[in-house]
Amino acid sequence: MYFSKDRFFNVSRRNVLTPEMIAIWDDLGVGVAVVDAEGYCEYMNPIQRRADGFTRIHLEGQHITKLYVPHELECIPTVECLRLSKPILKKSYLYKTTNNYLAGTVSDFFPLYNQGRKDGVIAFTLWTGSVPLGDPKRKARKSASRNNSSYYTFESLVGEDESLREVLGEARTAAKSSSHVMIWGESGTGKEVFAQAIHMESERKDKPFIAENCAAIPENLLEAILFGTSKGAYTDAPDKPGLFEEADGGTLLLDELNSMPLGLQAKLLRVLQEKRVRRLGSQKEIPVDVRVVSILNEAPLNAVSQGILRSDLFYRLAVVGLAVPPLRERKKDISVLARTFIERSEQKSGLGLIGVEPDVVQMFFDYDWPGNVRELLHVIEGSMALLGDSSSISRDNLPRHFREASENAFISPVSASAPTPAPQADESLLGKNFFDYSLVRRNGVVPLKSCVQKYETECIRNVLRLTGGNVAKAARIMQITGAGLRYKIQQLGIEDDY
């Protein structure tokens, strides 16, 4: 979700930390952290947790002095943003965490207000690199990438469904080669877990593994990050290697490849073909040996047909193609996944054996899981947090948003007690939720304009939800101009609650 600088002055933590917003922050390709007005952490998304080495630490309710080294507190821009009550943009700085991680980052910090009173700070990390202290090569991002103990392996991928086992078999075989791999699937299916597992199973496992989200960075900045810069290429440009140089000999993960601008895709294609990279502002070509694993959130041929992915780049990168199945297509894995997440839960300590009530199990099997494995993980974590003294997860322990979503999923658009529609309209041939069925029942007509408007609204909302509210990116996906999409959003009255 995108917020402008000025709009943040009217946003409170309560509005930011709704279940819908948390779902967006969890899937966002940049780090996000929220603290209250007293400096207590209220939320940190998975990317930021990994960057700071907090994946196994319960953060919520802890003061930042317990997360970051106290004597460097005055250097933390979160504190400065709280003190000054104004945004701090594109802040580049180094910091150290209490679990002995050293990190460098570029972040935006925005103050949050509630009825005119200071309510906290939200931070967006645009770029980060971290490494455990004690590594003699910690100054280099490459050395951080070689610390592979925290990466996922194929043993991390849990499931017995045939569709998953088939993809796992293909991935294990592909890992033994140096061919590029393209992975696609819905959000939350575990595509990056596959990417890390492939790296850890390959001969490159002792070499760097570097990941970059192509949707999180502007085109001009992304080009410099990928290919590096030569001193003098632009004002204050440093002499700095890009990710291709840093990943030399290892694996480079390009997440959301279909969000990369077409012009940059052409430059990427040349690097892949020539196996040489040229820094911005330099005439010198540097040989690189990099295996690229790319990730898409849709089928690549669909992206090619929409014109957002070059066909020649697709053929170059999809030497091996892996389609990760959604959770709704492998529901037999729900039980084993739920059990695994309970066993791995940070909140399980001291609780003993935790069970799941039969009616909850049935809810899990009946639900379609639009957020896939990630959504199931969040539901289990939320249930464990609400477990109290109970020894099993019941309906009362389930997060409220999940209970409402699962109940609404079974509400038919036409009540069972409603009169039969007029014979002139066949509801089975008409899409659900795109027009008012009551009009059909009253006079047997289907208002075409209303159908089109509601269908357009639903389509635009879905794409904006997919892009995190990025209108420019949504316009490219829908193959219309940005101005045209903004006009549609205004015309249809679509609010910022995608």
Task: Report what the structure shows.
This protein is of the alpha/beta class. The protein is 37% helix and 17% strand. It contains 20 helices and 16 strands. The chain has helices at residues 13-16, 19-27, 46-52, 77-84, 141-145, 162-175, 191-201, 219-227, 243-246, 262-274, 300-305, 311-317, 334-344, 358-366, 372-385, 400-408, 437-443, 448-466, 471-478, 482-492, and strands at 31-36, 41-44, 88-96, 101-114, 117-132, 181-184, 209-213, 228-229, 240-241, 251-255, 276-278, 285-287, 291-296, 320-323, 355-356, 392-393. The strands form 5 sheets. Strands 2-1-5-4-3 form a 5-stranded antiparallel sheet. Strands 7-10-13-6-14 form a 5-stranded parallel sheet. Strands 8-9 form a two-stranded antiparallel ribbon. A hairpin with a 4-residue loop joins strand 1 and strand 2 (41-44). Helix 6 (162-175) packs parallel to helix 7. The longest helix has 19 residues, at 448-466. The protein is globular. The N and C termini lie close together (8 Å). The relative contact order is 0.08.
